[in-house]
Amino acid sequence: MGTKTQPQLAKENERRIRANDKEFNAQFKYHNNYIKTSKYSLFTFLPFNLLEQFQRLANFYFLCLLVLQLIPAISSLTPVTTAIPLIGVLTLTAVKDAYDDIQRHLSDSQVNNRKSKTLRNGKLVEAKWSEVQVGDVIRLDNNQFVAADTLLLSTSEPNGLCFIETAELDGETNLKAKQCLTETIELGDRHDSLWNFNGEIICERPNNLLNKFDGTLIWRSQRFALDNEKILLRGCVLRNTQWCYGVVVFAGVDTKLMQNSGKTQFKSTGVDRLLNFIIIGIVLFLVSICALFAIGCAIWEGLIGQHFQLYLPWEHIIPKDYIPTGATVIGLLVFFSYAIVLNTVVPISLYVSVEVIRFVQSFLINWDEEMYHATTNTYAKARTTTLNEELGQIQYIFSDKTGTLTQNIMTFNKCSINGRSYGDVIDLRTGELVEITEALQSVDFSANPHHESEFRWYDRTLLDAVRSDEEHSHVFFRLLALCHTVMAETVDGKLEYQAQSPDEAALVSAARNFGFVFRTRTPNSITIEVMGQLEEYELLNILDFNNIRKRMSVILRRGDSVVLYCKGADNVIYDRLHGGQEDLKARTQDHLNKFAGEGLRTLALAERRLTQQYYNDWRLRQQEAALSMDSREQKLNAIYEEIESDMQLVGVTAIEDKLQDGVPKSIANLQNAGIKIWVLTGDKQETAINIGYSCQLLTDDLADVFIVDGNSVEEVEKQLRQFKESIKIYYRFRPGGIDPLDHFNSDSNMDPLSVTMTQTSAFMQETNLPPTPPPPPAISVVTFRWDDKIKDNKGGPDSAECNDLFGDEKRSEDGGCASILIDENTGFALVVNGHSLVHCLSPELETKFLDIASQCKAVICCRVTPLQKALVVELIKRAKNAVTLAIGDGANDVSMIKAAHIGVGISGQEGLQAVLSSDYSIAQFRYLERLLLVHGRWSYYRMCKFLRYFFYKNFAFTLCHCWYSLFCGFSAQTVFDPMFISVYNLFYTSLPVLALGVFEQDVSDKNSVEFPRLYTPGLKSELFNIREFIYSVLHGAFTSLVLFLIPYGVYKDGVSENGYILSDHMTLGAVVATILIVDNTAQISLYTSYWTVVNHVTIWGSLVWYFVLDYFYNYVIGGPYVGSLTQAMKDLTFWVTMLITVMALVAPVLAYKYYLLDVHPSLSDKIRQKSLKKIHSRASSDVRRTASSRRGRRSVRSGYAFAHQEGFGRLITSGKIMHKLPQDFAFPLGLGTKKTQALHNNLNSADGQASKTNNVSGKQTVNNNTNLRQNQNHSSMADITADGRGTGSEGGRGSGGTDDMSPRAPCQDLDTINL
């Protein structure tokens, strides 16, 4: 055995990179930065595409058939009849695949040709992204995409900091801080130093873990540890940083973005897969029939045919010496002849028609004005034409959150100050709430020179309170303006904020518009402008936010007054308030419940006045704890707990994470249709849960919300086991053991009974309780359901498996059955954290996880990586065998979109990566409702109806040869004219069935949305399955038998009035063919529910077209059947035969249709019958809640959610985050020093310049660099505000009683009116 070389070992176990050394890096053959998502090249397209197409059984079947037709000895039909349609199908599909791949090539080219500045030979040159190599040192400028995964070397900011936005990776638009090694900061932007940098990096191999990187830098004989905080990933955008330099570690397909992108999969519909299975069955049936007829032919030739060789001579290739041998050879040839004659049971025109129908349906989606978004001028687009009917069978929807359900916009919506609620607009005449719409006039803030034109607030009473110097409102907004980690900068004379979380941006923006403007900060000071007057505060401490504390505090000093401002989760703040505030706490809690019930994100605000002596003592102990080497975190937390106590409640903020329009209604409708919705988001737990309530995916009526957050397999398994027991307890205590029949008249004729029960959530009324198994309910409601079919459900009430819980329409008046009274809001929901999801997806736990998830109404997976999203989708596809749809708007959703059966991309704020990888693109989530319930259902309904009729008409046509074979010695003689056989599917019957497949609809689009349960047949594949196929085959066989036997019986020994013999083969064939066309016309007329001009033209036109073409072919071209039909039509026998035959075929169909309509009407039948009569199969439209119109309900859950990240407080107080470090940190504030006066003068001059340039309508505070989500699993933070009353007074802030309220509170506390 030879020893492995060093490069081989490095390649197996680790990755070695040397900066600026191409020769060293080349030996490892690392991938370059070129990416390729396309499937074909110019040279590989034809062979690969044909290979892919012939993997479809139908195409391979027709190829074999074409080869047989090229053999004259066995073929009675010209090969052109198969060759032209086959070539047409292959060409149509190839053109479509080529177009799709060209789009991928264009996308790849656009990315690969982006420009990047790269160091080459000591000079900075501009190179394409595709030319960037591992080990290159590259420069990034502000607002530029990162070309490859890069180790940060130096930046333009102090302390080696830079800020990035990771929307392409995880959908988050808030800023994240990265920091390079202190040892490499000195490299700066000096190109000679950077070119001479020869550090060697030893790191992990390429992987898909976005939040993990392990490596070591060896430089100058020293080793430095590398982690994820020093890595910039491809797809990120550099923000608020002038420039930075880095060395490429991973390039191209090795980057974490590409590792998470997933592979492009070939997608086919369930109908396609069923057709493949059916084709196998038909081929086996065809082989059996051909074998049977071959045996029959051999026997007939051996017994009878041998005696008629003078009349029916054998072919010269048939051995005539030994009769059994000759008969056997004839039988063998007849086998192949019948295979050709009977091939029309699956004609190639079926696939041509299917592709045409899908193609036209795609255009109907593209042209739908109801899915047009005027704001972005975007139509819905079907980016593939092969999956339309799959839209009508979706069982699971996997949705991203940010940018998909939400708008990436946070707005200050409501608040509560000193026990009084603000934000609702009340009609003073009636005392009722006024619905807030775009038409309602918002409050005018133009008197404030720093107001933002985009800010909207409708309750004028709050602005009046501020302007009248109402104390509590000033404290509230002063707290918002001071307690945060926002950075301010002036750009082109406009004051702009850079916030680390969108929540903070919204709160600071609200304070700004109400006249409390945050102006600037240094490491130890904060300056705000209150009603035009500057106030400067000394920043003593920032007690930073983290997931455990769920709050943030600042300690400020102005003059002799020291104050602590705190903001955080309501339950955390309430536990730290001083006594004597019961009335204020109760009123504020009522407001909190109201805000949470409206889906708003709430934070509680509090303050504490400190004496100088107390603060100094506390400060000494805090410094001692900070320097402790033993249990430092625990000691600091204890110190923080000490000072964050005995606080005075200031109020509550309510921020709306703005949902896209119509999201709650769409989700409710899709759930009522029987579709399960899972939200897979990279956001933190609290934020994800809050959005779940906001969009009504979660409701307060749920029996319980299970949270899986275990860190190990054992913890997760324990939690899943507990949740399973909770579900068992819930159902055990429902009174299912009673005999439900006792409640009804025993004489009533009922189907088997199925009992479903709903329970009031009495045990949910306790606030702030952990999710424990519910006790036996005090009140239970028993409801009953009678179903035609009682099916076992594997996992309980699983809507994705079409449990009839969502099921049958009210039938009390139609079928004498009891009404269904099902509370669709009860049940369970599951919330899974990303680190726990890793264990849930493991083989040992995935079954238990699915068992719990399948019994939950909704599932939310938070803090998940892009690859985890795809794994969840794959799990459901594999384990549940369910049809899945994934919808998202960012690059982090691409893998999920590719993994699902249907991928839908939203043209959002995060680029077009999701759209380019999707099968369908829409502008807003609400259009998904119409895409599925209207276009999806219609496409599935039309395709199923098309297939049922198509198989019927072709079996009716083809099996006539089988019956005729009994009378022609199994000789493969055809009943019909060969030309009729060739053009039957192409000219005579193609257009009517195409019109059926394109325009057919059972109910209108309005009713399709209004009655979502119309969607459920698609979930169960009820409209086309093996049973429906067999029914179509039997119907076709019966039709062919009647079609052949009645004319045969009439014409067998028939003689016309003129004495002409009617019993010739050509006359019989012409008569049967004509009656077949007439029957097809009658049958499709009965099939059609929705008549358009196109239907009339194609159906009746095809009948006329048959006679025109028959005349043209026989008389103009000179066909062999010339005169046969003409002579037959001159005789009354023909017309009577046709009438009797068609009536015999149509009468049973009519009778069966009327029987179903009268005895077993479907929901669509009832809707058509009762026209506009409402059938309440779902909750009323009150579930629609937009930003301006919310349900007035209260919730006992906390509305806390704060997308903030720990660490920014330390960056601020250390001065690392500042662009310029101040020369002097220690100074007395507010004493009129020269430095302070100069600062005031500068600010005032900037204000004057801004007003002169009329820039007061500047940019919205919520900067697009902030994001709705953050990296922590749990978030909570309270807004902190610094009180700048300047008087140092501590009076008037006592117990929160009536003396402490707003002057308007006693007479104008309209919060309690009519709520």
Automatic annotation (TrEMBL):
PROSITE patterns, per database record: ATPASE_E1_E2 (PS00154)
Top EC category: translocase
Transmembrane segments: 80-99, 274-303, 323-352, 946-967, 979-999, 1029-1048, 1060-1078, 1090-1113, 1133-1156
Principal location class: membrane
Residue ranges occupied by any P-type ATPase C-terminal domain in the UniProt entry: 915-1161
Membrane topology: Multi-pass membrane protein
Record InterPro entries: ATPase_P-typ_cyto_dom_N, ATPase_P-typ_P_site, ATPase_P-typ_TM_dom_sf, ATPase_P-typ_transduc_dom_A_sf, HAD-like_sf, HAD_sf, P-type_ATPase_IV, P-type_ATPase_N
Enzyme Commission number(s) from the entry: 7.6.2.1
Stored Pfam families: Cation_ATPase, PhoLip_ATPase_C, PhoLip_ATPase_N
Domain P-type ATPase N-terminal: from-to ranges: 17-82
UniProt-listed SUPFAM superfamilies: Calcium ATPase, transduction domain A, Calcium ATPase, transmembrane domain M, HAD-like, Metal cation-transporting ATPase, ATP-binding domain N
Family: Belongs to the cation transport ATPase (P-type) (TC 3.A.3) family. Type IV subfamily.
Name assigned to this protein: Phospholipid-transporting ATPase
Biological classification of the source: Eukaryota, Metazoa, Ecdysozoa, Arthropoda, Hexapoda
